[in-house]
Amino acid sequence: xxxxxxxxxxxxxxxxxxxxxxxxxxxxxxxxxxxxxxxxxxxxxxxxxxxxxxxxxxxxxxxxxxxxxxxxxxxxxxxxxxxxxxxxxxxxxxxxxxxxxxxxxxxxxxxxxxxxxxxxxxxxxxxxxxxxxxxxxxxxxxxxxxxxxxxxxxxxxxxxxxxxxxxxxxxxxxxxxxxxxxxxxxxxxxxxxxxxxxxxxxxxxxxxxxxxxxxxxxxxxxxxxxxxxxxxxxxxxxxxxxxxxxxxxxxxxxxxxxxxxxxxxxxxxxxxxxxxxxxxxxxxxxxxxxxxxxxxxxxxxxxxxxxxxxxxxxxxxxxxxxxxxxxxxxxxxxxxxxxxxxxxxxxxxxxxxxxxxxxxxxxxxxxxxxxxxxxxxxxxxxxxxxxxxxxxxxxxxxxxxxxxxxxxxxxxxxx
Length: 415
What we know:
Layout: E1 7-16, E2 19-20, H1 22-30, E3 37-38, E4 51-52, H2 66-69, H3 74-90, E5 102-107, H4 113-126, H5 135-139, H6 143-152, E6 158-159, H7 167-180, E7 186-193, H8 198-206, H9 217-220, E8 236-244, H10 245-250, E9 257-266, H11 279-292, E10 299-303, H12 310-324, E11 332-334, H13 337-340, H14 347-361, E12 363-364, E13 387-388, E14 393-400, E15 404-411
Helix pairs in contact: 3-6, 7-14, 11-12
C-alpha cells in the first residue's frame, strides 16, 4: 500500500463582507468587526429580511480584464479575485512543465443567480435576442474553476462541487485527497457565492430561515445566543492553496498548517433540518479525526458551522459534546459567521482560511454578539473578544441542506 503523501496549506485568499483581501479580513475578524448592514443591491422594503453581508467596494476591473468581466457572474469574479490573492500569498507560479500536476476545485452552492435574474428581465423586455452568448458560461457553477484554471495554467484535476453550505469544505477536502493519493501536487481550491438578489433573499425569507432583526443588522447574526432568530446571508469567496509537502519545501513556500483529515457524511433525515441527535455532525467530525490519526484531545479549536439558527447551534453543540466527551469543555469553539454572515457555498472556503490563520497566528477569532448565551450551547464560544492561544489542531465544520456534512482537520506544521 502506497504511503499517504503529506499535504500543506500555503496560501489564503479571502473576500467577505469584512473586506477584500486576506489581511483586511483577518484584521477585522480579530478586532470583532461586523460586516452586516441594510441590503443595497435591490429595494428590499417588501421583504421580511432587509439586511445582509454585502461585499462593499469591490471593483472587478481592478483584478480582471474588462473584456473578461462580461463573461462572468459576480460569484466567478469573486473566485478569480480570491484565487489571485491566494496564489500571490503563496508565491506560487505554475510552470508549464508541471501544469498537469496542478488542479482547481472551486464550488458554489447556487451559482449565477445574479445573471439569471438580469437575463430573465432582458428576455421579458426585449425577447430572446437580448440573451447574451455569455449567459450560460456566466452562470454555471464549474466556470469558477474553469476561469481560475485558465488564468493560472492549471491543467490537472478540475471540478466543482455544489453541496449547499458544505461546498467549500468539500472542495478543499477533495483537493486534499487528490494530492494525498498522488494525482496532483498543487490544488487551488475553495468556494464562492453571491446570491443577495430578489430571488435569493426572497427564497430564504419564504423558508423563514433568516434573521429579521432589521433594526440591528450588526447584532442580527448571533450564534449560540438565546436571542438568535435565523442566519444572515453573506457573500464572497475563500480560496486556499494546497501542496504536497515536498513541493512546498522545494520552492520555500510559506506553510500555514498541515491538512491532516477530512470527513464527509449524510444525515438521511430532512431536506433542510439537521438530524435531531446530531448524528451526521458527530460522524463527520469523528471521520475527520480518524482520517487524521490524531487523538480528539489534540484538537484545541473548532471553527463551528454556527449559523445563528435555533436548530443548528444547539445540534452542533450536542454533536461536539458527543465526539469530544470531557475534552469538549476545554475546546474553544467560535462562529465567525457572527461577523461575516453565512456565505453559503463559500462559507467552508472562508472558514478553512480563517482556521489556518488561527493556527499560524495563535489567535482565536471570537463569536461576537454573544450577549445572552443559550444554556443549550454551553461550550467555550470565545465570546466577543479574540483570544491568544496556541492551536495544535483545528476543525472546520460545514453542514448543508440535504443533510450533507463536511469536516476538515488542520494541524500546526512542525516539519
